[in-house]
């Protein structure tokens, strides 16, 4: 009886990553709807059988890409939390998410994120994936914020979840602007972010927004 060669885990992971990289490139160029599994096969230079061995659908591929990004994000946030104080932690996160990304990766990264956000409202599976990955990042940030509030570095009167959502919105806005504006100034943007969270952004005193003063559309 002929022995079946043993496939090393490293080989399987390499093939899986090859498919995810190919899919990300296709989604960025053509969009989620226009990309077919055949496109991903051709981009990855693998047969349909090889691709379907790892992923049965485009949604599963999106989940795989999101899982990898989540691991990277969680590692960056954990490293930031080990800095010891909030300012150093925030500077570490700004370097990771905004500055130290390789320039040639930005176009694909930005386009893929926006494509996923655009697809989410009409695709329940993608929406669920995005909600879960966003929730995981948000929970890591909330932990960082609560620790900072306990040390008196963040305003303890502010809701940690809302602070985390603002941080994430700044990143998503950053991605959008960098994608559509070739002259977008990354360093100037991050300097404003540092001023915003470091307390140097506003020299005056802002009065709290009263609920009754909000537009009707924002009250619910």
Please give the structural blueprint:
Blueprint: H1 9-30, H2 37-44, H3 48-54, H4 58-81, H5 86-99, H6 103-119, H7 124-150, H8 160-180, H9 186-198
Helix pairs in contact: 1-2, 1-4, 1-6, 4-5, 4-7, 5-9, 6-8, 7-8
Main attributes?
single chain, 220 residues, Arc Repressor Mutant, subunit A, 2 domains, 0% strand
Structure explained in plain terms:
- It contains nine helices and no strands.
- With 220 residues, the chain is mainly α.
- The chain folds into two domains: 7-56, Homeodomain-like (Arc Repressor Mutant, subunit A), CATH 1.10.10.60; 59-198, Orthogonal Bundle (Tetracycline Repressor, domain 2).
- The mean pLDDT is 83.
Structural class: mainly alpha
Multimerization status:
single chain
**Helical coverage, percent range:** 55-70%
Number of domains: 2
Global morphology = elongated
Low-confidence stretches: none
Radius of gyration: 21 Å
Q: Give the amount of beta strand, in percent.
A: under 5%
Largest sheet: none
**Full CATH superfamily name of the largest domain:** Tetracycline Repressor, domain 2
CATH architecture label of the largest domain? Orthogonal Bundle
* The CATH topology of the largest domain: Tetracycline Repressor, domain 2
Care to give the gist of this entry?
With 220 residues, the chain is an all-alpha fold.
């Amino acid at each position: 009886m002929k022995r079946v060669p043993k496939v090393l885990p490293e080989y399987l992971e390499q093939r899986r990553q090859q498919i995810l990289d190919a899919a990300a490139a296709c989604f960025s160029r053509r969009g989620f709807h226009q990309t077919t599994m055949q496109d991903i096969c051709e981009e990855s230079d693998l047969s349909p059988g090889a691709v379907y061995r790892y992923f049965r659908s485009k949604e599963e591929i999106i989940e795989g890409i999101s899982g990898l990004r989540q691991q990277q994000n969680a590692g960056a946030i954990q490293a930031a939390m080990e800095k010891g104080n909030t300012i150093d932690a925030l500077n570490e996160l700004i370097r990771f998410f905004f500055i130290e990304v390789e320039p040639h990766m930005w176009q694909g990264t930005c386009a893929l994120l926006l494509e996923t956000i655009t697809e989410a409202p009409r695709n329940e599976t993608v929406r669920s994936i995005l909600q879960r990955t966003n929730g995981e990042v948000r929970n890591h940030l909330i932990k960082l914020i609560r620790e900072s509030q306990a040390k008196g570095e963040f305003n303890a009167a502010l809701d940690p979840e809302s602070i985390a959502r603002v941080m994430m919105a700044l990143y998503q806005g950053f991605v959008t602007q960098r994608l559509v504006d070739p002259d977008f100034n990354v360093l100037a943007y991050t300097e404003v972010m540092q001023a915003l969270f470091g307390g140097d952004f506003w020299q005056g005193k802002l009065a709290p927004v009263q609920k009754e003063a909000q537009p009707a559309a924002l009250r619910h």
